[in-house]
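Contributing new records

If you add data, match the layout below exactly. Sequence lines come first and carry their own label; structure lines follow with theirs. Keep one chain per record. Anything else will be rejected by the validation script.
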Amino acid sequence: MSTVLSILLIVDALFMIVTVLMQSSNDDGMSALSGRSNDSYFSKSKAKTMEARLALGTKIAAGIFVALSLLMLLVK
């Protein structure tokens, strides 16, 4: 059981690494703290872009990673 969980944890970690590396960088830097955004009409549908899908995939992979880590803690 521990071996299967270890393999799933490694696969999930690799998936999370790939999704984080594929995301584009946010060039706002410190100007993002001011609250001003340069959103245009075309950026209103960000939920359908590739960046949004990658961000969602990263969040799901991180949740699975935490769950698998806790499960491995309980199994050992």
